Amino acid sequence: QVQLVESGGGLVQAGDSLRLSCAASGRTFSDYAMGWFRQAPGKDREFVAAISWSARSIYYADSVKGRFTISRDNAKNTVYLQMNSLKPEDTAVYYCARDLSRRRTIVPRSRSQYDYWGQGTQVTVST
Known about the structure:
With 127 residues, the protein is mainly beta.
């Protein structure tokens, strides 16, 4: 099966930055949109950002617009999430996921539209 491995999480102070990485297996990584989701204790897993297979389309949750940047390096089978100006409310386990359909024009925002998920990486932002 496809494997996704997140890394880069940690404990930081409000206002600091982190860059998360998601390394993916599979020869056809470049053919799929990739997304980032997060889940805080007691809350549902929520959409953070996604990038289309072509990188022509990128979408962000309103809560992270202007602060987070999603990107991908197909040569390295890796998707990134650059997180700046971190806030305590960004504290969560962050997951990357792969779109269930190959080369879709749309960029999925719903959990149900992703079929493979990483194990997650913890991000904790102190005040």
